[in-house]
Amino acid sequence: MAKVCYCADDFSMRPEISSAILSLLEKERIHATSCMTQSPSWFQDAKVLTSLDTTAEIGLHLNFTQAFGVQDYTERLPKLMLGAWTGQLSQTKVRDSIARQWELFCSTTGRMPDFVDGHQHVHQFPVIREALFKFLNQQQFKGWVRSLRHPVLTPNTRIKVTLLKLLGATRFSEMCQHYNIHQNSTFAGIYSFDAQSYALLNQQWLAQAQDQLLIMCHPALSHSQSSHDPIHAARVREFEYFDSAQFQQDCRHHHIQLGPLGAI
Description:
InterPro entries: Glyco_hydro/deAcase_b/a-brl, YdjC-like. By secondary structure, this protein is of the alpha/beta class. It has helices at 15-26, 42-50, 77-86, 91-109, 128-138, 158-166, 169-179, 198-207, 232-242, 245-253, and strands at 2-11, 32-35, 57-62, 115-118, 144-145, 182-183, 186-188, 213-217, 256-258. The chain has a single domain (2-263), classed as Glycoside hydrolase/deacetylase (TIM Barrel), CATH 3.20.20. The protein is built from 10 helices and 9 strands. Strands 1, 2, 3, 4, 5, 6, 7, 8 and 9 form a 9-stranded parallel sheet that branches. α8 (198-207) links the parallel β7 and β8. α5 packs parallel to α7. The chain is globular.
């Protein structure tokens, strides 16, 4: 029986996302969520999240691309990537942003994050990853970080998965080992967010599951005001799958034990 953790990204980005995640956590369909602490609704959302009677892990979703306010240091993803790989990103701004997002998490929840990952996987980018590991070391962080080094491959996702792995996953994993910070063994959840069967994708991931497989997801409730979200339709499909009997059946069929990654 393989032990697997589903982690929902983007908690507190928008109400329909947070509501979906809270529902799935309560039903124990997922066992981790990563939080965007710069969101204007973070304080209220965090109170609800931390009041849940659950063993789920709560993490920091490090953000450098989603603008919530004028105080946030963010860039469009292409510009951020260019700055990271040319070494032109401001180390001071990166360090200060990490510290601010961390403080917003800790001051609101009363504790450190159980784990750290990155919105659009920015945590593994050059400059950002160096600043992150130095910061985590200073904080004596005992949790885990998301690693994309060993992704689960499927026929329709192989190209995107390989490209994301090339964007710093190997070096990031090596730095985890250097700083003695825990990381997941394998990773899944990457796909193109199109209308392909999300159930089939999960069946393919679960068929290859090994212990400490971390599967990223992005569920949301249907919302008429989310037309500006390019992946909203995919978010809704994901929620409908996780909320279905089909998901439970797929886990049983592939002999999957769901739980928080830190407990695996």
